[in-house]
Amino acid sequence: MTDVLRLTVLGSASPYPRAGNPCSGYLVEGGGARLWMDAGSGTLGALGEHVRLDRLDGIWISHLHADHCADLLTAYYGLLYADVELAAPVPLLGPPGIADRLAGFLTNGPRRSPVEDAFRIVELHDRHRARVGGLTLTSRAVAHGMPAFGLRVETEAGVSLVYSGDSAPCDALTSLADGCTTLLCEADLAQPAPPGTEAVHHTPEDAGATAAAAAAKRLVVTHLGPFLEPSEAVRRAAAHYTGPVEYAAPGRTFELAKP
User: Fold this and answer.
1) Locate the Metallo-beta-lactamase domain: which residues (predicted)?
2) How big is the CA angle at 85 (ends 81 and 87), to the nearest 5 degrees?
């Protein structure tokens, strides 16, 4: 029975890649599986430092904003037209319409680009469940003003990583993160959304409150906006959560295990 999950931060920048920090993307390893979780701009190169595209067991995409999915376009070329030995399309779990969105970007003539030759596409829905190797993936629809999902990745021994994707605080995310080993939560906003405006992201304070409400064992803040320093985001989140709070620094690997 596998009792360890490994989370490697490929990038955590928002809304565009910075020098030394790609957009949102993570490699999750455990249960004999490797999962690319979000594929924001610049993350494909960082992924290649750890695993080849044809060694992935799956790709999971939270939503179709470019800073979370743009590198699927270059991954498509890598899978079909480069030095990758693709025995079968890579499972790609993503929001409804992801296949047509990719084909729309990639098609440059009368014939639709064969995205299904590169990716075995599965459309997510609220409470979607899937198995990737020894990992169970549970997706919940979250509050981002568009089709968007959070993810719980769990080993057979119950070690769990919950990723907010992009989301405002919401009951679905809190429920998804209930008792999790680590909550990887976005903290994009330096200030709360203006009154009367629909929130679509967390502030650091929101991230701490979500972790506290979910009784998460650890909080890792990620997807910080350009007006937030990591140390400030950690400090502000920690004011609302008594557990350990860390920053998803690019290149960092977190080991998740039961106490």
Assistant:
1) 38-223
2) 110
The enclosing H or E element of 118 equals helix 115-118
CATH pick for 4-257 out of 3.40.1190.20, 3.30.1490.20, 1.10.10.60, 3.60.15.10: 3.60.15.10
User: Could you identify the residue written with the tokens 């409150």?
Assistant: 209
The whole-angstrom separation of Cα 240 and Cα 116 is 44
Question: What tokens appear for 157 in the block?
Answer: 């021994």
Per residue in 158-188, pLDDT (tens digit) is 999 999 999 999 999 999 999 999 999 999 9
Query: How far is 86 from 228, CA to CA, in rounded Å?
Result: 41
Strand order in the sheet with 245-247: 128-132, 135-141, 149-154, 160-163, 182-186, 219-222, 245-247
The helix or strand, by DSSP H or E, that contains position 60, with its residue range, turns out to be strand 58-60
Instruction: Determine contact, residues 129/149, Cβ cutoff 8 Å.
Output: no
Q: Is the pTM of this model over 0.85?
A: yes
Going by their DSSP bridges, the two strands 253-257 and 245-247 should be labelled as unpaired
User: Where do the structural domains in the chain lie, given as residue ranges?
Assistant: 4-257
Tokens of 181: 């080993």
Rounded CA gap, 131 and 230, in Å? Answer: 34
Residue 156 has pLDDT above 70, yes or no: yes
